[in-house]
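Lab channel / #folding
Pinned by the channel admin:
"Please post every new chain as: sequence first, then the C-alpha cells as a reply. Keep commentary short and put observations after the output so the thread stays searchable."

First post following the new format, from NK:
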Amino acid sequence: MNFPPIKEQLEIITNNVVEIISVDELEQKLRLSEKTGQPLKIKLGADPSRPDLHLGHSVVLRKLREFQNLGHQAILIIGDFTAMIGDPSGKSKTRPQLSAEEARENGKSYFEQASKILDPAKTTICYNADWLGSMGFADVVRLASHYTVARMLERDDFERRYRSQEPISIHEFLYPLAQGMDSVHLKNDVELGGTDQKFNLLVGRDLQREYGITPQVCITMPLLVGTGGGEKMSKSLGNAICFNDSPDDMYGKALSIPDLLIQTYTKLLLPLRELSVCKILDDINDNPRNAKRSLARHLVASYYSKEEADAAESRFDHLFVHKKAPDSIELFEFDLPSIPLIDLLVDLGAATSKSDARRMIQQKSVLIDERKIEEITENIELNIVPKTVRAGKRKFFKVAIKKDFE
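Reply from TO:
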C-alpha cells in the first residue's frame, strides 16, 4: 500500500495533539509501515456510559479519521465490559457501573454517531467483552501481578481520593488493567485518548511490553471547553453541543460560545486545510461575529449538509435578528376552555416539570402572543383562534380549544 511521505504524515498526526509518547517511536512505526506496506493499527477506546456524543468526543474521533485518511487501520473499541467496571478517570467518586445490556445498547449508538466523522467502511469495531469476558480468576490475578498499588496511586484522581480519605474500590484498580488488556489483545501500534486518559494509555503501553509486544505509541488530545467557556464540555453540565442536536440547536449553541473560543473550536473541530476554514481564523480579530457565524455554519454542514446549515442560519436570523416568529408552528388543541400556564408549559413539552415551568416564568422567558407573562398562577384562556406561546428563545407553540368543544 502507498502511504503519503513520512514528513507529511507526521505533520498531520502531530497537529493539535497535546503529547505523543514518543514521536521517535511513532516515526519508526511509520517507516516500518512504509517499508512493509502494512497500515498501522490505531486504537480508540469508547466508553459507552452515555449513549450520546458531543463535540468534545469529536476531537479525538477526528484524529482517528486523519489516520484513516493516511491509509491506516482505525479500530474503535466499545468498552462494554469495562463499562461494567466504571472508568474512574477524573472522578472524585466511584462511577456508576452499567449492565451488559446497557453498555451494548449505548455502544451501538456510539458507533452510529461516530460514523458521522469516521469512515464506517474502514473502521473495525470491537467489543472488549469478547476477550475480557472469557478471562478466569487466575487470568485476572496474573494480570494484576504486572502492576503495583504504588503505580496505581500515581494516578492523579486516585492520589487525591486517597489523600482525602475518600473510598477507592478495588474494582477501580482493575479498570486501567482491563483497558490495557485491550491493547495486549489487539497488538495495536497507536492508542488515542483525551488528556484525562493518559494514565490508562500508559498502562496499555506497559502491559504490551510485559507481554512481549512492541509498546504502543500514546497520543493525547486536548479536552474541549464547553460553550460557557469554563469547564470541559459535558452534557450533564449543560454546556455541550451534541452530534444529534438539531441543525437549529447546533447553530444557535455554536453562536453562544465566547469569542475567545472561536479559534480553539475552529482548530479542533474543522479540517484546517480547507480555505474557507482558514478564512474563519483570519476573521477572528477583525470580525469575530462573522467568524463565529461561519464556524456555526461549518459545524452544522459537517454533521448534516450545507443546505441544512444555510437553512439553520436563515431561521436563526428570522427569530433573533429580525425578531419574528417561525413560519410554521405546531398547533396543540385542548378540550378545556382554560388551563394553568404551568400545566400548559409541561403539556407542550416546553418545560420538563412544574418547577422548571415556574423557573421559566420567573425569568420572564414565557410570552403569550408577545405578552410577557409575570404571574406564575396565570390561567390561559383558550379560543378557536390560536394563541402563540413562546418559551425561551427557540420554543414556539400554537394553542387553541378544539373546534368541537361544547
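NK: The chain has a mean pLDDT of 87.
TO: also worth noting, Residues 115 and 123 are 9 Å apart (CA to CA).
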